[in-house]
Amino acid sequence: MLTTGPRGTKDILPDTSGFWQYVEKKAREVCNLFGYREIRTPIFEHTELFLRGIGETTDIVEKEMYTFSDRGGRSITLRPENTAAVVRAFLEHKLYADTPPAKLFYIGPMFRYDRPQAGRYRQFHQFGIEAIGAKGPAIDAEIIILATQFLRSLGLNELVLQLNSVGCPECRPKYRSVLQEFLRDKLSNLCKDCQSRFDRNPMRILDCKQAECTSLTQGAPQMVDCLCDECNQHFTQLKTLLTAGNIEFKLNPRLVRGLDYYTKTAFEIQYAPLGSQSAVCGGGRYDGLIAECGGQPTPGIGFAIGMERVLLALEKQNLLPDVMNQYDVFVIPLGEKAQAAAFKVLCDLRKSGYIADMDFMDRSLKAQMKLANKFSAQYAVIIGDDEVATNSAVLKNMQTGEQQQINFDELLKKLDTEVNG
Ligand code: AMP
Fold first, then answer.
1. For the segment 138-181, what is each residue's pLDDT rounded down to a tens digit?
2. 91 CB under 6 A from ligand 1?
3. pTM of the complete model
4. Which of 17, 308, 372, 413 could join 330 in a cystine, given CB atoms 3.0 to 4.6 angstroms apart?
């Protein structure tokens, strides 16, 4: 137990953390291009926020939350997603008073008691966007394009954007009853979960992954055929904007977010080579959520991208960059007297901005040279007793093998001309 992490968690080790930093940097870059600024909310929130903000009939709330009482007796939940928390912060800090829309992004861990498998973890990380305050379809198109641009900037091109509209509280009740009529005589053959969804949340039956349910719902009436004028117009304009932005999409009537505060646009981006966990991004409009959380009615839309899945995709496609830490200089003291002088040179190098290191394990000269090679150091600075006596060091170019004796005072200047030309 003590040497194994909890099921569904993963350590990000030094060999891979560089890949994470690379992907996070790309996310920040694309957010910057699109005018989205970072928001960091706590990892835990009051449970009530998620009950309201995600919906009590969702799998997340029913089965997947890490909920506990803290020592003060409050019910606390580790965030299973971040939209509700961002909305909470938006209201708490009156971000609506700034020029709308609020364009926000976040990167961080989420927690769900899910069944762990490749691409599915209990602690996982999402990069997400929330755009709060704009109701027109242009912002929908913008965030979809942002997600696509981010994934493409990493070299992921085989993306499939699935698109749907889930209507609004105006048109959905009609669709709901049309759908219930269609499902009524199939009810007893649906899975248990879907049977219980029939009254509470029938649209969710459409995205059940059980084979029996999928086949029974073939030919079901589609939300897009029941949209009110406003939703229909929104959807049509969105499709026009995406086409203008050169973004291909596939209509998927099964893509649903069955809660009242999810409205209009729903989308998912899949990366097929990932296999069963191919969804890398899920998003949609939530025009009723801010009011549900206690604010003035305010439209909003967002998405979340699963970082682990993006990294899996990059690994699969050999798209991970070379992030091996390359040292500028490796400092090698020979003998005890040289230790302090070498340490001072090391400190000076680092102060001047060189990536520099030395041995801390009393290794032999040969082993230290090996280490310098392992870290692909461009230069070794070798300091022996003789050098200490003359205040100098041997500067060795690790690629050419060329070496020269150089005064401590001249070392930084020399390196500067060697490295920076
Ligand atoms: P969701 O918040 O459920 O809409 O998920 C958005 C994205 O987060 C998905 O498309 C996945 O890429 C990722 N994701 C969701 N749940 C998990 C999980 N348990 N493990 C890893 N990634 C996940």
1. 999 999 999 999 999 999 999 999 999 999 999 999 999 999 99
2. no
3. 0.94
4. 372
